[in-house]
Amino acid sequence: MVGVDTVTPQEHSAALAEFPELLRLIDLHDAGWMFLPTLDSEGQVVEMHGVRTWPEGWADALRVRYTTDARGLRTDHTGGITWQRDGTLNEIVDGLITLPAPSDRLAPRLVVAQTSMLRLA
Prior knowledge:
Helix content is 24%, strand content 33%. By secondary structure, the protein is of the alpha+beta class. It has one domain.
């Protein structure tokens, strides 16, 4: 499996030139997010899943299928969804970055849906 550490500088530059939106995933990675790609039978990335965990069991999640097909959400410790958006990669990353920390008094807390943590996106 190809990982970030095995990508050459030339491959990195070529990917960013073709898909500049990938810089947004780098922004999340730099903010402490972890990513796991979904690969097809030929080893090509077909989806990217990301997660950021918070104290007390909160988690933010991201699913990206293409630059125009992304989903972001926040769950509480029970798997209750307190925030969810669908849109472009840029829209969802903007939403996740501006989402207040779960401990912030302005953070969303009302559970709007329930999900299994295995089926976040």
